[in-house]
Amino acid sequence: MREPAVAGSFYPDTPKAIEAELARQPGAALNSGMTTLSGTALFAPSFGPFVPFVGVGVGVYRQGRADEDDYGSLSAFVVGAKLKLGGLIVVRAEWRKLGLSGTPRLAIDDRISGGVGVSF
Predict the structure, then answer these.
(1) 10-residue block means of pLDDT along the chain (120 residues)?
(2) Residue 54, Cβ neighbours under 10 Å: how many?
(3) 57, exposed or middle or buried, with CB in 10 Å at 0-12, 13-18, 19+?
(4) pTM value?
(5) Structural domain includes residue 98
(6) 93 within some domain
(7) Collapsed DSSP state (helix, strand, coil) of residue 79
(8) Total domain count for the chain?
């Protein structure tokens, strides 16, 4: 009998992940930028050390420019992959298509990010 991919899963053979993200993206102008806090549900099948993923997310954002701040909600479509090296190091890259509520002060529609981390 196979173990479920996620405890409490309705579909135990379907690989999935849930993650939270706090991100800061500086703007081109001095004293500008955007901070986001989001939660994402991902479909993430594992092929040995390689794990591609795709998912959707929701959250909130804060954009700042000089003395003006703007707050709102966001939606995200996420595509990416991670590579586990030696069971401890993880290399990750992703693209997020962002949908910001209202009329944002900074035109940020998508984000490409990458990084190296430790898996535990």
Answers:
(1) 40 74 83 90 92 96 85 95 91 94 84 88
(2) 14
(3) buried
(4) 0.77
(5) yes
(6) yes
(7) strand
(8) 1
Q: What is the pLDDT of residue 36?
A: 92
Let me know: does 62 contact 71? Beta carbons within 8 Å: yes
Q: Note whether 36 and 22 are within 8 A (CB).
A: yes
What does each C-alpha distance from 117 to 19, 64, 86 come to in angstroms?
A: 15, 28, 12
Structure tokens at 113: 């990010």
Q: Is residue 5 part of a domain?
A: no
Strands (E), the chain: 16-26, 32-43, 50-65, 68-85, 89-100, 110-118
Q: What pLDDT score does 102 carry?
A: 86
Would the CA dihedral through 81, 86, 90, 93 be positive or negative? Answer: negative
Q: Is residue 1 domain-resident?
A: no
Q: Domain range holding 104?
A: 16-118
Cα 23 from Cα 39, distance rounded (Å)? 11
* Structure-token match 């993430």, residue found: 44
88: left (phi over 0), alpha (psi -120 to 50) or beta: alpha
